[in-house]
Amino acid sequence: MILNRYIFKELLRSQLVVFAVLYTVFISQLLIRLISEASIGSIPGAIVAQLVLYALPEISVILLPLTVFIAILITLGRICSDSEMVVMRSVGFSPAKVMNIALIVAFITALITGVCSIYLIPKASQEQQKILSDAKSNPTFLPIESGRFVSFGVGMNIYIEEVEKEGGDNKKIRHIYVMQNPFSQINGSMTTASEGYLQRMSQVCCGCI
């Protein structure tokens, strides 16, 4: 019984360490990618943390089976290299019992992975889509700032000198310059307005042209 607990704890400890290291690497890569997208205005910076949070179940499903495999290799390799397996066999603790404990750890990991796959990932994906949809329709999340050119990826650049928040989700903007195909000598155009406002559905309403 003592050996069972010892091997189980060693397997679990190795898995948690490997999981923490790989989790940090994956989250760092995801965070760098999202921050780079936020820096160019593809997504609002305010939702980066939420997107990372809802990506955790998907990352867990990828890493959990891998970490249990690596943990078994590390733990059994260390037990054999330290001659602990020889001592265990001398007291009647066969390698088959060690593998049974490893299978228990693998079974628990499989259950957690199944819960993440069946329940958590669909909900997290739905929340991600909802956040991105709200970001596109909510002017509070639009990547428009004072004194900065913003490209919307459709040949349109917008420059606004002043952005003021009003009640609710509206923003009041002043001195607006909308440039369509600014680098084209044929189809290029520019529209200006002294003031306007932003409202839902990503509409820019301008007046006093």
Task: Outline the secondary-structure elements.
Blueprint (H helix, E strand, L loop, with lengths): L1 H38 L8 H34 L2 H7 L4 H43 L10 E4 L4 E10 L5 E10 L8 E11 L3 E5 L2
Antiparallel strand pairs: 1-2, 2-3, 3-4, 4-5
Average pLDDT taken over every residue: 79
Summing up helix and strand content along with how strands pair, one would put the structural category as alpha+beta
Q: Return residue spans where pLDDT drops below 50 for at least 5 consecutive residues.
A: 201-209
Strand percent estimate: 15-25%
Q: What summary fits the major beta sheet?
A: 5 strands, antiparallel
Q: Element order, helices and strands?
A: HHHHEEEEE
Number of helices, counting only DSSP H or I runs of 4 residues or more: 4
Q: Give the neighbour order of strands across the main sheet.
A: 1-2-3-4-5
Radius of gyration: 27 Å
Subunit structure: Component of the lipopolysaccharide transport and assembly complex. The LptBFG transporter is composed of two ATP-binding proteins (LptB) and two transmembrane proteins (LptF and LptG).
Family: Belongs to the LptF/LptG family.
Protein name: Lipopolysaccharide export system permease protein lptF
InterPro entries: LptG/LptF_permease (IPR005495)
